[in-house]
């Protein structure tokens, strides 16, 4: 998914061509104003795209009653207004892209005005509570962590929470919507919420301290410019934060260097030893992927040397990234090959949507299927941009080449429409023994509503392979693969590009005119065993746990105890 909020952006393991669509000529009467013409050009393109190249089209119609015709009619109403401003047109397109309740399908707008109140609120078992205060502001704000907020600007906090969840337009699983609304209570952006306050405006909160019997009081806070006066550190309850909400225990046995890409340590508690790894993102720059994998391998080796009893992986707030990278990185957790969720791909005529023409894919499959040695496989894959760019972290051997060849060959016989569930690029991920011995101890993975896309797929893969106890709340339900088209992605005549999506030059010009950075759409549907979709369903925990009020005032001791109990139950 991609959106104006930077943490919602994600990379995909494979990107390719998007459809081209000719725009309709503009009437002469609007020639002096480029915005209506640009809006019609973009409208015609996305109408064609959603009609033929949007993989969840039938699923959305069946499950949430989404209708392309209805959403186009709403968009047309705004475009037809005689004096529709570029801002109104952008809002209309934003609403169109959010209507399918698809976190991978969205419009990217340039960063707007962002403000915040210097703290974070979270929904707990005992109301909405202050969960974190920026350390630089803590001496000046008349609040403490654990205080309950019962009203916000004269409205009950529950009503404010519901209004934000409805206004931001990002809809999927209930846990995702609740946790995103928590974030937007005190951090607002004009690209996401139309009623974002101006810097310097005041917010009135009715607060009840966590001390028993204390009376409620009204507190006024100032909305601060998030760019000029942003946080001094990232709140551990925000998405993609490297620091876990669970503070390291006192009895540390080993700790990875602070400069490590992923935080990791070993510790003891109640006579047992544990390993801990914080996986805050799978969106790892290609240049950093080898280091990140090596450091995770080093941590797993230390855990084995220390003879830990279980491993805790904290994936809360992970905004996703490259799920193939995540599978390969974690393959040492498996004694048998890891079989990830399958994908249903979309065939449109002679093209596999998001991957390219069938003929080009068949050619790649023939090249890969013809290799005879590991050395030949390595040379062949290094010469293919798709592998060099998006699977550079994976094994370069004949088995991998043969698996990829089967992936490309699959599409030759598929009829138009959605395919049967099939593997993505390689059928399974086999542990590379050269990286170290298998870590076979129990694993607990912490998940939440802000675990998005690849962070939906990873816990699904671990769970479906019988390798993990999932702990927390249900993931976001971003259950497909996306393609992004930005202002620099104009299709070149005659080019066959299998590494990025593109659009006709006139559509790119329309994005420029309207002030839109990019658009994103979903090209596959992820499927777990039993034909269970991930889209809008997410992955449920084995051990449900929401942040409790007493977590906030005790250094998350109740959550730690519950996590370690889950780790013990996994033995």
Give an overview in words.
This protein has about 575 residues and is an alpha+beta fold. Strand 11 and strand 12 form a beta hairpin.
Anisotropy-based shape: globular
- What is the mean pLDDT? 91
The structural class is: alpha+beta
Distance between the termini: 36 Å
Largest sheet entry: 7 strands, mixed
**Would you report the number of β strands?**
25
**Multimerization status:** single chain
Uncertain runs are: 1-31
Kindly state the percentage of residues in helix: 25-40%
**With helices defined by DSSP (H or I, 4 residues minimum), what is the helix count?**
16
What fraction of the residues are assigned to beta strands by DSSP?
A: 15-25%
Q: Which strand order does the major sheet show?
A: 11-12-13-14-19-20-25
Q: Using only CA atoms, what is the Rg?
A: 25 Å
Give a quick summary of the entry.
The chain is α+β, with helices and mostly antiparallel strands and 571 residues long. It has 16 helices and 25 strands. The strands form 6 sheets. A 7-stranded mixed β-sheet has the order 11-12-13-14-19-20-25, with helices on both faces.
